[in-house]
Amino acid sequence: MRTPRRGSAYDQAEAAFKSANSKPAVATPVKPATPPEGKEMVSLRLDRAVLAHFQEDGPGWQERINAALRRAAGLEPGD
Q: What is the pTM (predicted TM-score) of this model?
């Protein structure tokens, strides 16, 4: 009786490597959609004079810049 042939040593090594390095199939988590009014951190370059203008009234300068950008983009009516 013959012993079943399992392929070359290369094929056996390849199969062993694949089984040792294969990651189990895991469902990729779905990222929830960002709410439309959510905030996102970004890096933005502004002129020093523009930044100083918004910072001179103290805390809340980031919100003031956001409000000015929303008005400029037509997302909110002007004052």
A: 0.51
